[in-house]
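Reproducibility note. Readers wishing to regenerate the assembly model reported in the main text can use the exact inputs given here. Chain order matters: entities are listed in the order in which they were concatenated for prediction.
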Amino acid sequence: MSVKNWTLLIINSLVLLVVLTISFSFYSEFSKVLDKRILLHLRSIKTLKKIQLQRLVNKEWNAFTYATNIAKQGGIKLPENEFLVNGIYDLTHLHPSKKTSIGLVKIKDSVRYLNIVSYKKIQQILLERTGMGASGESYLVGNDYRLRSQSRFFPKTKPYEIIVKTEGVINGLKNIRGEGFFPDYRGIEVYSVYNSLNIGNLNWVILSEIDVKEVQIPLKEMRDKLLILTLITLLVSITISLFLTKIITNPLKKIHNLIGFMAKGNYNEKIQLKNSPKEITEMNVALANLSEVISSAVNFSVEIGNMNLDSEYQPKGKNDLLGKSLLKMRNKLKAYRTLESEINKSNKRLLIQNLESERKRLARELHDGLGPLLTTLKINVQNKIESGENKDTIKNIIDTTIAEIRQMTNVLMPTSLDKFGIGATLNNYVQSIQDSISFPISFENLTQHENSNITKEQEIHLFRITQELINNTIKHAKASQIKISLTEFADFLSLFYFDDGIGFDSEKVTTGSGLTNIKDRVEICNGILIINSSKGKTTFEIEMPIKNNKND
Amino acid sequence: MIKIVVTDDHKLFRIGLAELLKKQKDFNVIATFSDGEKFLDFYTKSQDFDIVLLDINMPNIDGIEVLNKLRKIKSSVKPIIISMYDDGNYIAKCSKNGAYSYLLKNTDEEELIKAIRIVAKGKKYFSSLIAEKMVNFMATQSVSENLLSNKETEVLLLISKGLTTKEIATQLFVSTRTIETHRANILKKLEVKNTAQLIKKASEIKLI
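Running the prediction on these inputs yields the following structure tokens for the assembly.
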């Protein structure tokens, strides 16, 4: 069953239960109170009438007792052998037309006097109907279960002809005072209050009654109202709960769809939830966060896929296994790549080392092998050849050859690099270059001289780099000056090269220009190379780290 | 008579040089050695000679070390370097270590003889070419005895003129990071924290 149906069922059942309980208890309480009030009312009316009747009869009796002559016989003829004692009697059955008659009998001087209490007066008392509503009445019943007062409902019928043998009358004749609901002489349910009425020899019952139907009109009205109210409440509650379920289920449906998208790998979908409950909005936010987490992991893995290993990723928590694995993968790849580049670097280094040692060997061969031979040759020429034009020519050729060898040595591997370090070597080198070019070239040596911490390897690379740069400038730049400085600090060195030539596009220069060579050498030394080139100003900034202990 | 000892590891050159010198009537080549060690052994036994011609590159003990030893014991023997190297640093180093002259191995006979004669009189001889190389080299080797290096003083001056790091770098033909490092080193050396303090302190101690 869906949330909607559950909600509808539960909420509306609850509402119905509550409303019904309240209505019912209200109704029954009201009904009880009503009963009580009605009975109380009837009781007071009955009591009043009883007292009024008693008074009337007593008054008549007194008047009759002290009067001398008055006698109203009312057409009743007393039997000779009955009613021989002073008293009040019910003489209705003696009346020729069975009109209710309360007879007062007085014996004075052996004469029997009879007076009938005015039926009119009795009726007046009983028919006085203030506060009795439309169906209320008070009436008298004799011990023969016949009415003694006029029925409201049958004004044409003589009371004596109506037999009233109701619960009230039976109890009243037994001298029981009481009240209750039961059918009256018409067979209609009434609220009834009854009491015996014993005046003299009268053994009657007085009853005040009102139709249950009339009394219960407000009760019915209330019941109807309560029913309508219940219906309205139910309607409202259904509407509200429908609205409520809509508030909950609509965003849930949206979220469901969103999760569907995410399951298919689409993390870019977003949903807008307006006026949704806080929890749902929070859920959406949590979902958005989840989506963000996943998509950041996805993006990260895309980066890794592209071998972009410097991209960072922050694991979203202890249990972010995906993120952690990705990070692990990245680190491994990074390690592989580092290893690869290390191997590359060391390959390059080896290659260059071999090259350099070959050059060094060659330079030494030239300088230390050929050099002495040539100088010896010259000595021998000077010693053994007689002076003359030939001797000078030979000497010149030998000198030129020696100069050539010196230059070749300088280019291959200056001998001073080993003994005097890079500063002095570049100084010599730049001076030898100056001899062969027409524009000024200067070198500023700011190394630590004897205390330098620049390694032999770095020195060779620095020399080659400078050599390459000078070559490039001379070959391509059409420069009118070159300025070079080498500065050594405690933890790094800086080679700065400047020329005012035509410049070049460092992106486009071909590998043949030696730039690759320079880059390789800088890389081998873990250095950095910054090239700025524009017309009239080309600078190379090269930095290499220096370890403070040269033996490292 | 000028008594000469020749020390060179190349036998042919050594012999050739000795023969060349022997042609001079007043020159007497009393001994030749193939390395510095052998020469020094000889020297401890006999100091009866005026001049020693020393190669730089030799096995065991090289020419410069020999120069050093002779200088230390204040020997009266006047050493002349005769080398293949024509670099200023070699020349300067030898000169500093007491060489009376610096000759290249392919020096002409006339100059060689001229140099020996001058040195024999107790004077130093450096040809104009050699002297120029030496001077050029030494010019770049100046080491400041002051608190700040020459470069640092230069940087300080430019800072005091209100130039930015970049302007200073451009003017001195070095990288900006070099200037930054110089600047940091200057601040450290003068024990100040910022440029304002630096200028104050620098003018106080009359650096600028």
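We highlight two features of this model. Chain B is about 50% helix and 15% strand. The first strand of chain B starts at residue 2 and ends at 7.
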